[in-house]
Amino acid sequence: MAKLRPARCVHCLNEVDCITDDHLFPKSWYPSSTPANLEKWKFPACLKCNRAYGLLEEGLRLLLAACVSTTSPASAGLWESARDSMNPAKARDAKDAKRRENVRTRFLSRIRELDASFHAHALPEIHQDRPKGTIGLLVPAKELHRFIEKLVRGSIYITERRYVEEKQEITVSLLRPEDSAPIVSLLEQVGEMYERGLGIRIRKGVAQEAKANAVFVFDIWNQFRFLGAVTDRNL
Predict the structure, then answer these.
(1) 7, 44 Cβ separation under 8 angstroms
(2) pLDDT per position in the chain (235 positions), as tens?
(3) DSSP conformational letter for 125
(4) 217: which of 44, 96, 99, 188 is 20 to 30 A away, CA to CA?
(5) What's the rounded Cα separation, in Å, for the pair 49 and 118?
(6) β-pair partners for 204
């Protein structure tokens, strides 16, 4: 719901007359083990940006939730919810059934039988020894990067009440656990930790000599680890 008040969008940085609340993580990304009274972090966004990210996040949720453990509390209920959202039999009406059918068709079009070449491009997982199957899903790299950039912008606003300005640059990394371990270790010693229930953990570190620069590690569903950083282009 748009609110009739002027505000600045965290995404496009434009001043708008009507503002919406964009959730850092959509409600559908929280596992069923999340405490009911946990505050779902949100920040101001214009309606256009909020809608665009909503579509992006729903597509990513279906793909990533299909790869999680169905027994881990950190990802409880995620796949079941994603699967139901693609089931025409659970639709409210004919229009909703058609939409669900289209979503399922797009989802199925991304399924591939794995061969040796896929493993080199697989998303890094926190627990690499987790059993692997013979079926994979194609995850759009561009959309995943946009989502992580959103997490950086939103986390900066929520924790510091400031915007990532145009003079700053956001970079995204998909590092394997052994490569990200030194960063995680450092942030655990000198950084900040934010746990949003069992499924979401955010680590943040700020450069002492340049407070506007920050690095983040996002652990999602105790399975995926994404790194993002914001730096001043002039430094």
Answers:
(1) yes
(2) 788 889 999 999 999 999 999 999 999 999 999 999 999 999 999 999 999 999 999 999 999 999 999 999 999 999 999 999 999 999 999 999 999 999 999 999 999 998 877 777 889 889 878 877 888 999 999 999 999 999 999 999 999 999 999 999 999 998 888 888 999 999 999 999 999 999 999 999 998 788 889 999 999 999 999 999 999 987 6
(3) B
(4) 44
(5) 33
(6) 192, 216
Name beta bridge partners: 170: 230
Q: Which helix (H) or strand (E) holds 111?
A: strand 111-113
DSSP H/E element including 43: strand 42-45
Nearest to 221 by CA among 119, 82, 77: 77
**Angstrom distance (rounded) from CA 55 to CA 22:** 12
Phi/psi at 174 (5° precision): -115, 85
Which residues have a Cβ under 8 Å from the Cβ of 138 and sit 6 or more positions away?
A: 63, 110, 112
Contacts of 127 (CB under 8 A, 6+ apart): 177, 222, 223
- Residues 225 and 196: their CA atoms lie apart, in Å, by 15
Q: Is this structure's pTM higher than 0.85?
A: yes
Phi-psi region of 18 (alpha: psi -120 to 50; beta: other; left: phi over 0): beta
Nearest in space to 77 (alpha carbons), one of 85, 110, 143:
85
Q: What does residue 72 show for φ and ψ, rounded to 5 degrees?
A: -80, 135
The token duo for 40 is 């779902």
